[in-house]
Amino acid sequence: MATIITTVSAYQFIPAIFKALSSNGDEQAIAEASEQLQILENELAVKGKKFFGGDNIGLVDIAADFMAYWLGIIEEAAGIKLVKEDKFPKITEWADNFANSPAVKEILPPREHLLGFFKAKYGKA
Question: What are the Cα distances from residue 118, in Å, to 31, 35, 69, 87, 103?
């Protein structure tokens, strides 16, 4: 049951994140995104594991993969930092573990290509 709840939470944060990134720094939108991210932070803290699924990548990790690689690039392009290491240390650690996993790392698109795309979309050129 916890995996289903966490999977739903992993999908719910996406609209809040995009709203915050598109908001030009609107405090309300950033607060809403932080609330959603806190749910995932708490889940990682409670489990105390490397990934949401335990010691191996699982369904919830795949559902939340957007945070591990793409979000940091979009944050840079938009000039808004949502996932700060001091506020979300478990998410930061999880993202590093996930994005640097050999199975994931080999299929990620080049960072510089994504950054150019998202700068055109979100603004800080």
Answer: 22, 24, 13, 24, 25
pTM for the predicted model, two decimal places: 0.82
List CB contacts of 113: < 8 A, sequence separation 6 or more.
none
The first and second tokens of residue 104, run together, are 């994931």
pLDDT tens, per residue, the chain with 125 residues: 444 445 545 567 788 888 888 887 789 999 999 998 998 899 888 888 899 888 899 888 888 888 899 899 988 988 889 999 999 999 999 999 999 999 999 999 999 999 999 888 877 54
Q: Are 83 and 91 in contact (CB under 8 A)?
A: yes
d(CA 33, CA 11): 12
Contact of 79 with 124, CB cutoff 8 Å: yes
